[in-house]
Amino acid sequence: MSGGTHQGGMSLIVRTVTRWLKAFILLFGIYVVLYGHVSPGGGFAGGVVIACAYILLTLAEGRERTARLLSERLAAVLAVAGLLFFLGVGLAGMVGGRAFLDNFLVGDSGAEPALASGGIIELCEIAIGIIVSMSLFLAFAVLSRFRVSLGDGDETATGEGGAS
Amino acid sequence: MALLGILLFLMIIGAVIAVETRNLLSSIVCLGAIGFLLSIVFLFLGAPDLAITQLVVEILCLVILIRATIHRRVETVAGNREFVGLAVTVVMLAIVLMLAISMMAGFPSLGTSVLDRMAQAPSHFYLLQGKAQTGVTNIVTAILLDFRAYDTLGEATVLFCAVMGALAVLRRSARRRPEEGDAGDEGEGGAE
Q1: Does residue A5 form part of some domain?
Q2: Would A47 be classed as within a structural domain?
Q3: Residue A44 contacts residue A38 (beta carbons within 8 Å)
Q4: In which domain, by residue range, is A107 found?
Q5: Residue B139 in 3-state DSSP?
Q6: Which residues of B touch A1 (CB under 8 A)?
Q7: Which pLDDT tens digit goes with each residue over B42-95?
């Protein structure tokens, strides 16, 4: 909790680098989520990358500034929406007497691999990416606010965030 | 295979240091080194999906762990080791190790495909029909989200529920400002 210079953030160098890097990290995470069916990766890995982008932002800029981009309430709502979307895709497969999570949009197997060639796989990837990224961001936010004590058993609830 | 052995040996060294060191931060750094080496191992064994996931999850865990433990004094208890507990641990470890070695004798050697041993294995079907039935080229994704999508849905639900549970449990005490906290209501330990 020392080293906080501005509103619980980190130094100017870290904040400037973060400002440059955050868009690229987010973009890479979204790429990994979207192209998980063509190249290695997928919803889980890409979701963690997206969560890491927001965690970097939280560490560098402090919690108040990050909350303007992604508040914890919005993250929770998005996580719920992602899970419901996944369930909805699964239920949509049941239409017409088929099975739960049936791939009703199955792609053209002879075609070149593209964004839409996986049918519901692509939709599920997006849903998992949202669930994982928002859940892990929330986990980080909660755990950093409520520091787990490893010492003599006192629980330190820190109100001010961001500094490490 | 020699490279794999070196990597595994380094991982064992890191694990021993992580357990034995006094400094909490260096212990976590060793833990991170083990994770990164594991992701390299996955890469050499031909599992890039697993390697990517291991790498990013390791980074996330490291950040959370470092943040949770930095600037924290840890009281170490120095005392004699309990002889009975140590003996029981050693005996149990030896038994498990011997069982594991006897089990491993029946394993196929590293790198041989399961298809060579079992022509009827389900993975055979996945590899042959995955592209035709799902239209995706990454067979891991095809298995995770098409053939075994039910498992993946459960996995996502578990993660979601865990985080929501943590949110619900930690929210109340975390929201209270230190000056607002009344001492009588603190069930477990006072807030600063």
Answers
A1: no
A2: yes
A3: no
A4: 12-157
A5: helix
A6: 71
A7: 998 888 999 999 999 999 989 888 877 776 666 667 777 788 889 999 999 999
